[in-house]
Amino acid sequence: METNKTFKLETSKDFSVPANKLYKAWTEPEQLKLWWKPIGNQLKAVDNDIRDGGRVAYQFVEDTLRVSGEYLEVKEGQNLVYTWNWEFPNDAVKNGAFKLNVRFEDKGNGSKLSVTQENFQDEEALQPHKEGWDKALNDLQNYLEGKNVEENASSENKNASDANASAGYRESPEQQKVGGG
């Protein structure tokens, strides 16, 4: 006997801004482009018709990923429920069709964002999505706190680059040290 069990992921994060500011950062295309970069992809265009039955679609600079869906329930500033379809047109990666429930709540002097993602086929698929949400919510927090998401990524790359330079990787090919002796 086969069971048709689906799995869901739940995550949340506290923010130091009011829920309405958090909601706008999540839904306004120009703000979204500044902080959300799934799998390293930069948003090029956002179609975000925020109403029951409205369309949501994200196009990226590199055409290796598309995300689209439909708003099922909208409570402005409070809750969004929508389908979330990941399409990898140039890859053998399995496309994913999910349902998102995103809640925005005022909490003390700040707010809380809660995300529930449903329709995973197995537990193994949860982990990369959990890591993706953790990164996205951290990037959103950095953006809302005035920290440039690009600068944070650049400083991480600079640290790696500096380590490479000290190991001789910035030298011309004939100057590079090879081996330990």
Short description:
This protein is α+β, with helices and mostly antiparallel strands and about 180 residues long. Helices cover about 30% and strands about 35% of the residues.
Low-confidence stretches: 152-181
Q: What is the H-and-E element order?
A: EHHEEEEEEHH
> How many runs of DSSP E, i.e. beta strands?
7
Number of domains: 1
According to CATH, the homologous superfamily is: START domain
User: Which CATH class applies here?
Assistant: Alpha Beta
Average pLDDT figure: 81
Task: Please state how the strands of the largest beta sheet are arranged side by side.
Answer: 1-7-6-5-4-3-2
Radius of gyration: 20 Å
Remind me, CATH topology?
Answer: Alpha-D-Glucose-1,6-Bisphosphate, Chain A, domain 4
Principal-axes geometry comes out as globular
Q: How large is the share of residues in beta strands?
A: 25-35%
What's the CATH architecture?
2-Layer Sandwich
Structure classification: alpha+beta
Helical fraction equals: 25-40%
* Major sheet: 7 strands, antiparallel
> Count the helices. How many?
4
Distance between the termini: 63 Å
